[in-house]
Design a protein that fits this description.
Homotrimer. Helices cover about 30% and strands about 35% of the residues. The chain has about 150 residues and is α+β, with helices and mostly antiparallel strands.
Length: about 150
Amino acid sequence: MRIGHSYDLHNLLPGTGFYLGGIFIPTNFTVEAISDGDVLLHTIGEAIIGALGYGDLGQWFKPTTEKFSSTKIITHALTLLKKEGYQIVNIDTTVIIDEPKLSPFRDKIKATLGELLELSAKQINLKFTTTEKNFPTIIQAQTVILLQKL
């Protein structure tokens, strides 16, 4: 068994929406990032990479002028996972943002994560909370993941 953890944070800027868990959330903000800024996919990918002992995202994905889909991070992490002979037991993740409220998107995000990671809904725990308006211009995510050898 191996445990991985990751934390990510991005600034929010005026815009038309952002990606979270592989789906587009329409709102008055966008995420400032070199990728599509999907903090949830970033932390899940990095938690897998970290649990396997492969460092952090910065070692695998260098800053670039071209935006890319964060599903690329998941694809890379799953390649390493399979190479090392592990599988995901479960994921526990928290997204922290004041606005918009994310609860209406929970089922769609979990379904998308299940497809991307080949997991059942029971293996994915997705929580949402706020900063109580202390940090209204950021989005954060934290993920803990448990892996087991095949």
